[in-house]
Amino acid sequence: MAKLYVIESDEGSKVPFLRGILTRSLQDVGLGFEEAYECASQVREALKDESQVRSWELRRLVLEHLRRGGEEHVAERYATGGTGIETIAVVGDDGASEPFSADLHSKSLELCGIEVEHARYLSRMLSIHLAKRRRSQIDKAYLVRLTYRLLARETDEKTAQRYLVWWHFKRRGTPLLLLIGGTAGSGKSTLATELASRLDVFRTQSTDMLREIMRAMLPERLLPVLHRSSFDAWRALPDANGSRDFESTIAQGYRGQTDLVGVLCEAAVQRAVRESVSMVLEGVHIDANTVERLRENEHIIVVPVMLAVLKEDVWRKRIQGRGRAAHQRRSQRYLKSFESIWQLQSHLLSEADKENIPIVVNDEREGAINEILRIIGDTLSSELFPDPTKLSA
Q1: What are phi and psi of 377, to 5 degrees?
Q2: What span, in angstroms and rounded, lies between the C-alpha atoms of 249 and 237?
Q3: Residue 246 and residue 240: Cα distance in Å, rounded?
Q4: What is the Cα–Cα distance from 206 to 166, expressed in whole angstroms?
Q5: Percentage of residues of the chain with pLDDT beyond 70
Q6: Domain membership flag for residue 380
Q7: Do 204 and 309 have their domain in common?
Q8: Are residues 135 and 45 in the same domain?
């Protein structure tokens, strides 16, 4: 297939035809990804023997394919260069208004544990509905009701209820504390960053950083257990060579370090509560005991999860990925200490299971993120809205 260039009619400039760009343009006017990609592919196939096409000819060809496929409304929006929803103002409870945004709307759907592409597709469906109504202004509550009905029809009732729970939770202003535990290489920091972005949480904290602060304040001769890695802290115990089994030995050293770091974890959370801000706290020191202590604070909703990597090859590849840049020596140390880290994970998962802390297998990032978002939504529902069927927009 020859390389195809698009000639802009007014300027005469030449740019390559990119199927991905056309696909996204069609998505922007209301087509789902699969339908948009199929249309873009058909257009490219129709031009397979051409080396260039004028922009107006390309647009005409796209419109023909859309109308032939029964997408008359999409064709109208594509012909006019927009969705027609930019003029719709969404008015909140305080009377303030903002333009409807399909992108922002899809972000709110992602909080329900809906995959990114599916969330975008659903938001585009709602955009089409609003465009057909040709209204210049809608209430926020009306938008929420439309979204709820859309989710109930296109997904399931539980997902729709989860959306209402999120909406009511945000209106309450109660801070959220997401705790992400797991051993080295489980993906804690990566997921914490992504989840903080999706949740619009601006305060994140790593327990490793809190441990570094304590190390700077307390010399090794005073607290040797603090100056070792979590999986290696047992070596600083007075009876490190005792007769206990290996996992119990590692667990005792780990608990000795975690009890110390837990003091700063509590301090960081107390400040978040005073300032009424949500927070993501991640690190290997998030264990069942830390979770129990932090749950004692009644002024913040605590949602703990424990990450797990159950396939040895996945864990090793993830650690090796760290070693391609500045952390080469650190990754090599982790690989040499594989057995200790694996035993520590066994301890953490066992304790989490006993305390009913959700365990999330992090073999695939997007799937893990969606599962954690569903866990958060279900926790909010059970703690704040025990009967979500009574929720309404």
Answers
A1: -60, -45
A2: 9
A3: 10
A4: 26
A5: 91
A6: no
A7: yes
A8: no
